[in-house]
Specification:
The chain has about 280 residues and is of the alpha/beta class. It contains ten helices and eight strands. The structure holds adenosine monophosphate, fe (iii) ion (FE) (2 copies) and zinc ion (ZN).
Length: about 280
């Protein structure tokens, strides 16, 4: 099985990078992509574990983007992690995420929600982690306010609550360009997952394709049958490939490793299109 979208403790997953790779091996995933939000911090530990466990590793990033006020996630496979624009954009997003988390917690505290910023930081497993709302959720779970991340999102953290604060994210067409400049292969994550928030129209995806987008993640936990079909049809009409992946976050989400998978031909196309010198690590 080829699973091209997963998270570790370098962002909002609950498995350390090495644990993620071991879990993939145990689940029968032979090729795994590590795609933490706005970070390459988990790459080295994942690579070490991949060699040790016998898993092929695709090093990637899930880049936070936007189009107007709509949040978009862009998967970047095999980019040069030292590309200056990429490095600067990821650092900007991570710094903005930290300021935004503090602001959200301050708004919650002022409204009487029993939480402190120190409790949130206590949920961050590694220095340099990309922080996000799941870390607030984990603090609420730890202090018994809610039983699981899901309920924290439903009650306190979704974008319609008075506590929601946006963070910096690059405009998505510009992001496709800087991923390409870094020699990476750009795939739009869960393009039509309306349950997560607003989604963009096909015209925006067409503009992304013109800028060098390579694929759409059609098969994803948050897509229903109609959204999957729309992604497959749009990809075909724009000459893009389609991927499937789990978006596994450890115990942070119900998504299980390998629940959606990608065709070997598509993995070959990703390798073929990468221009960074970062290869798929074969074990
Ligand atoms: P943020 O990056 O801070 O905007 O938070 C978004 C992240 O929260 C996503 O990447 C998901 O991993 C996670 N998330 C969103 N909704 C839920 C939910 N209902 N339950 C668990 N995690 C969620
Ligand atoms: Fe996430
Ligand atoms: Fe995502
Ligand atoms: Zn993800």
């Amino acid at each position: 099985m080829i699973d091209l979208h997963t998270h570790s403790t370098a962002s909002d997953g609950t498995d350390a990078p090495g644990e993620l790779v071991a879990a993939a091996k145990a689940a029968g995933v032979g090729t795994l992509a590590i795609t933490d939000h706005d970070s390459t911090q988990g790459w080295d530990a994942a690579a070490e574990a991949a060699t040790a466990c016998g898993v092929d590793l695709v090093r990637g990033i899930e880049v936070s983007c936007r189009h107007g006020g709509v949040s978009i996630h862009l998967l970047a496979y095999l980019p040069d992690p030292e590309s200056p624009t990429l490095v600067a954009e990821l650092a900007h997003a991570r710094a903005s995420r930290e300021a935004r988390l503090a602001r959200m917690v301050a708004l919650m505290e002022a409204d009487g929600v029993p939480i402190t910023y120190a409790e949130v930081l206590a949920q961050v497993q590694r220095p340099g982690t990309t922080v996000g709302r799941p870390h607030i959720a984990d603090a609420l779970v730890a202090s018994g306010v809610v039983p699981h991340r899901d309920e924290a999102f439903a009650s306190y953290l979704h974008s319609g609550t008075p506590y929601y604060v946006a963070h910096y994210a690059c405009e998505v067409v510009a992001a496709v360009r800087f991923v390409r400049e870094a020699g990476g292969v750009a795939v739009m994550a869960h393009p039509f997952a309306a349950a997560r928030g607003r989604v963009v129209g096909d015209d925006v995806i067409e503009a992304m394709a013109d800028a060098g987008l390579a694929g759409l993640e059609a098969f994803h936990h948050d897509h229903d049958a109609e959204q999957t079909r729309h992604a497959v049809d749009l990809a075909r009409s724009l000459g893009l490939f389609v991927t499937g992946s789990s978006d596994y976050h450890g115990t942070g989400k119900v998504n299980v490793l390998g629940e959606h998978v990608t065709d070997p031909d598509v993995l070959a196309a990703i390798e073929e299109q990468a221009r960074s010198g970062v290869a798929v690590l074969r074990s």
